[in-house]
Amino acid sequence: MTTGVFSFQPSSATLSLLGGYAANCQSRVVNPTNTVFDGQNAGNVGLFIPTQNDVTIEGISFTRMHKGVTLYFDDFSDGSGHEFKMRYNIFHDYQADGSDPNLSGAVAMHGAPDSGGVNVHFQNNLVYNVSATNGLPAVDLNSRDAGYIDMSNSTVAGIGSGIAAAVNFYAPNNGGAFLENNIIFNGTSTSLSFSAGDIGPYAGYNLLGNVAASVDAGANSFVTNFNNSFGAPGFQNTSTHDYHLASNALLTVNAGGAAIYNPDGWPGHDLDGHVPRKIGSAIDLGAYESSVDDLNNFTVTSTLDASHASASSVNCAVNSSTCTLREAIIDANQNNGASRLGFNLPCASLLPLASALPDITTDVTIDGYTNPGATVNTSASAFNANLCIYLNGQGSVADGLHTSGSGRLTVLGLALGGFTVAAIRLDSGSGHMIYGNQIGNAFGSNFDGVHISGSSQHTTLGGYDDPAAFNLIGGNSSSGVNIDNTTGLNTVANNLIGLDSAGLSLPSSKNNTGVLISNSPSNTLNYNTISANTGPGISISGAGAKSNIVQYNSIGLATDGSPASNGDPAVLIVFAANGNTIGAAQSGTSGGNSLYSTAKGVWISTSGGAGNRVLANRITPGGSALGIDLGVAGATTNNSSGSANHMQNYPTVVNAFRTVTGE
Fold it and tell me: Rounded to two decimals, what is the model's pTM?
């Protein structure tokens, strides 16, 4: 139990309040019941954080906070590119003093009020029996210009009176609001309201009160779209504040969306620590995942590469003695609903393929972690998963797993190697999730590790908040990740690309190019370690490669910080690629990458397009090479008619003024 006044003065340093640490601080379990901030309803107790940088609040319970919990970006500062994150927290049993001018809600996050907006993330939180006086909302989320709000998989309920949750969003330029898979329920008043200035929002797969009138949508018409629902959430027992979902909760269990519009994807686990978050055909709404599994389940029990559909003993039927992976895919494709392919084989087992497996044409999950002995990765700087299922193309099969038609593929817990085109090739479908795998490395080189192509979109490769989601991608003769789908909109986050399982450089772990983006727009590369590849760490190529975002990555360094340079350069922008962001957004200061290279750092070549931003990165080039190089290699003069970012190689100081401060 903790008491007192918690207030942080405006700071330019990042701040993380992380609950769940053991007494020796050597281990941590992200469970908000392990760390409790208890204000004991004292008149002046609350958490108030004004800041000018990134803040994360994770895994903490806040109760009896008379002055509420408030996080806001300091007035008159540019918040562009900064991140506010509240996730895996519980806020309960208090009424905040709305007469305090510093309060806008019992739980509040506000971006910069007069400049570029902070990205606001409110994920997998539980808020109950919380309100504020003076008609203020229980939850108030507010970004600003060019920032976005992501409110996902949270439960706000048991409020009683007032507004259960308000999302006030002002973004006249290019911001956006995303609400997905939430339960926002208040039986006596408005569940959700939006300000008139909102852009969008995208709001899908939420339960938003008893009836549509529970939502004050203003001019927005999202209420009847995107599978939002109204009715009873189906909580276990609200009288004891048990907001888990009952097994018969039809509107909330296995009722969520695929996170295809949500910039953060799904949470890695729920408040009880489930990994992965989804159990069944779809993710559940709210902060807790139920154990209800409505999937068509097949268990692979044979390493043979055969279908034997007509042989009752090996055709994956209920009474068959064995089931092969090939036959399981055939049967899954014939189902109307979603299917999971699990495994029950000795650990480790090699599944050699003599020919390509059938394309995935429906919603299929292939889960290697179902095999006895398999364990997920728990390290933030390495890949210590114990994988049991090794899929190998023997150097003669084109693809390991391939989608066509409307196929939606989820792959976890596999090692894939020996494929001549790609270990995983996504040519169609949407909402694919690839996490917790080892692709290449010691299990045989592929040409490409993961190839996202054709009409596919909204693939999530890796994840944001759980090491179990990270992929290890290395030893592939072409690209670790090759993205050339014309719609783009993919996320690559928190993967080790080009390193070995210890996060270090080995010859066998190198890809040629770490990540290749060709004529594909609006992809996001965040928090990856992309190092030791023989060619560029990242290559962005083609006129269609625009609006890609590369932020918070470590490029050319091992996870222990030692040099592990990619080839020349670390980041390449070529063949009219334009409007991409390497580092902070325009006018922002947050989002920079750490780059080390024995040659050039970021090179926008002579054929590179214009409008590419390279901002706020830490770049260490080698020898006489430049950290940022435009046009031909080496220093060149400014030339506004040039093609490589208009050849603005260095700033030109036109005027300088001295401001008297009085000190």
Answer: 0.89
